[in-house]
Amino acid sequence: MTGSTETEIIVVDTPQALAQDAARHISRLALTCIESTGRFTIALSGGSTPKALYELLASQPFQQEMPWEDIFFFFGDERCVAHDSSESNYRMASEAMLSKASIPPENVFPTELQDSAPEESAIQYEKKLKEFFSLKEGEFPVFDLILLGLGDDGHTASLFPESKALGESERLCVANYVEKFKASRITLTLPVLNNAAQVVFLVTGSGKAAIINDILTGKKERAYPAMLVSPHNGTLRWYLDKAAASELDAALCCP
After folding, report:
1. What is the CATH number of the domain that holds 51?
2. The pTM is what?
């Protein structure tokens, strides 16, 4: 993690406390961005840890505090399944938050055709991003916040080790073929992640402790995909529970 990226590591006791802290941060950030620019743009992540966060944001007091009409939701990645599939990131986010909060339907931007035509789905999603952010040729969107998780193999979004999308430098969104699943996934690319104003990783559980230590200390030479996330002119924040941070040197962690 180099360059002008400001990095914060925040460790809390439990996954529940992590969701609470992250929800408070997102609420404050949304209000600040909306006051400044009139809107807040966020790319959502899939997984069990974000699900707890989304459920919290859709409950009180956050449900009432959040200016939902000025928040716009995108997806960092999506599995190539129908939206009603139990594996769909859109379905999870919808059931946990999007359908429960007072969010205008036009503020939510899911993928389309992901289950039948992944390549076309990625092209169409890129068009949505270009139109929404009014991008010129060669420009990348600046999300106010991108939420990310971390896989046991160091993948984040659907950027898996040794997958083709890791080398993408021009596209905003691609259908990335993942060998171990023998399937493609729709994912935002590293240039998009690294152009965000803020990226937040949400990681819980002792099963991630070793890889968290590898990534945040840089002791291991292997370039996990998550190590490539470093917003050029933004902030990078890691929310970890104590189990996930159990192998980290305490000096690295914020109280």
Report:
1. 3.40.50.1360
2. 0.96
